[in-house]
Design a protein that fits this description.
single chain; about 240 residues; mainly beta; Thiol Ester Dehydrase, Chain A; Type Iii Antifreeze Protein Isoform Hplc 12; SH3 type barrels; 5-stranded mixed barrel; elongated; SAF_FlgA; bacterial flagellum biogenesis; signal; cilium
């Protein structure tokens, strides 16, 4: 685990159960071949599936290796991808231990595929668009190479586009923002509650705010600025 802590990358331990006895020293060594490596990487990807429940992850290709023999014993693999974002990884570091001792340290190139429904624009959408359900389509795409794609269309409805999106292009999480419920200059209703007593008055928003955000509001009657929590469009609550 020290290796994983130094690199900051995720490491998963996998038992190798498919090792083939070596023909030249069957009682003391095992032979590692291409199929063993493929099974180790496939098992590793299966452990990562829960991190990406919408995606179907599979190993398309891996670098060919020359079979090698290692001392027999309890074998354990440590697999570390080259990138924190699994789908950006094109190399994997594999450390093989036999009875706790490192007997092989290797790096392989691999090609991954991760298919998942991705939200794309149903039409050309200009910057500032407040997304509605009809603006979105779900298309199965390979997540490899996509930056922060949006996988849940329901959570996107009501969000505002920070930049234009062409029809068929995938949305990105960084390209969306939550529009304010209240904008600077809006007239709002201020509510203050103490026990069963509730008092309301009118105010002028001094800044914009989204739901549950605290903003400055000028009390129209007293002319004083107070801090209020945004509760709904045109409605705030005094934080006592």
């Amino acid at each position: 685990m020290a290796f994983a802590q130094r690199t900051g990358l995720l490491t998963v331990f996998l038992l190798l159960v498919t090792a083939v006895p070596s023909v030249f020293a069957a009682s003391q060594t095992v032979k590692i071949e291409q199929e063993n490596i493929r099974k180790v990487l496939t098992s590793y990807l299966q452990t990562q599936q829960k991190r990406y429940p919408q995606a179907q992850i599979r190993l398309r290709e891996i670098q060919r290796i020359t079979p090698f023999a290692i001392p027999a014993g309890r074998l354990r693999w440590e697999v570390t991808p080259s990138s924190r974002r699994l789908f950006d990884s094109r190399r994997f570091n594999l450390i093989l231990r036999s009875n706790g001792t490192v007997v092989k340290n290797m790096t392989l190139f691999a090609d991954l595929e991760a298919l998942a429904p991705v939200a794309v624009a149903a039409a050309d959408l200009p910057r500032g668009t407040i997304l509605q359900a009809e603006d979105l389509s779900m298309v199965t795409m390979d997540l490899a190479g996509l930056r922060a794609p949006c996988l849940d269309a329901q959570q996107m409805v009501g969000k505002k586009l920070r930049r234009p999106v062409r029809m068929g292009a995938p949305f990105t999480q960084t390209g969306l923002e939550t529009p304010p419920l209240i904008k600077r200059g809006d007239m709002v209703t201020i509510t203050a509650s103490v026990g069963a007593l509730t008092v309301t008055t009118r105010g002028l928003a001094q800044e914009s705010g989204i739901a549950d955000e605290t903003i400055r509001v000028k009390n129209i009657r007293s002319k004083k600025e107070i801090f209020c929590r945004v509760t709904a469009p045109s409605a705030v609550e005094v934080e006592l």
